[in-house]
Amino acid sequence: MLYRECINLKIVLIRHTECIANELGVYGGQVDYELTKKGKKQLDKVIKYLYDSKIFEGIEHVYTSPLKRCYLLANKISKTFNLPFNFKSNLIETNFGIFEGLSNEEIKKNFKDDYEKWCNEYVTFAIPKGESLLNCSKRVSLVVNEIINKNKNLIIVAHGGIIKLIILNLLKLDLSHYWNFYCGNGSIIELSYMDDFAYIKNIINFNN
Fold first, then answer.
1. Hey, which residues does 120 pair with through a beta bridge?
2. Which residues are CB-neighbours of 17 under 8 A, at least 6 positions away?
3. Could you name the CATH architecture of 8-97+133-204?
4. Is 177 in the active site?
5. What pTM, to 2 d.p., does this model score?
6. Was 127 annotated as part of a binding site?
7. In this predicted model, what pLDDT tens digit does every residue of 25-78 receive, in sequence order?
8. Residue ranges of the domains in the chain?
9. Is 15 marked as binding a ligand?
10. Catalytic entry in 16, 100, 131, 159
11. Which residues of 104-118 are buried (b: 16+ CB within 10 A; e: fewer)?
């Protein structure tokens, strides 16, 4: 009988705190927005919760999107808890193409046909100069598999859409469930992962 090592991990997903795009109510996508004053306060709340709840215990590595709104938090986590961290380009937010920097109302007004296609075919429709949810999910799956195979308890700091895709990947749900999850700024989602099975253990929201 062949012995196979059991993978048993703690995975903590953290969405970046509030940035200018969130404050303006526009699609930030891959634009490198600064944090707002509220976002900087939320950042401190996240760090305090990680410390007070002892959720950081056992964590061995931090991975982050390369965009500033994520790596500022990842860097502070790294320094506070003496953890190594790495940038992962596949953790960057969905490329919203011509929709980036615009609100829903502005998109409906200026790109009506594309907006309707996006709403009706949100999994497969690629926004002009952007990417489809399907293609985004493929790159997210690549980085999730890479990270999990390192067999280390970890924190991932990323964007709302990317975190939802990570959850779908770990829970083995298809993309039709994308809108069944909400992830506010500063949200912390703790999952337990054993071999090929994952479940959500805890959710904390610092959106206020």
1. none
2. 35, 38, 39, 40, 42, 43, 46, 69, 73, 185, 186, 206
3. 3-Layer(aba) Sandwich (3.40)
4. no
5. 0.93
6. no
7. 999 999 999 999 999 999 999 999 999 999 999 999 999 999 999 999 999 999
8. 8-97+133-204
9. yes
10. 16
11. eeebeeebeebbeeb
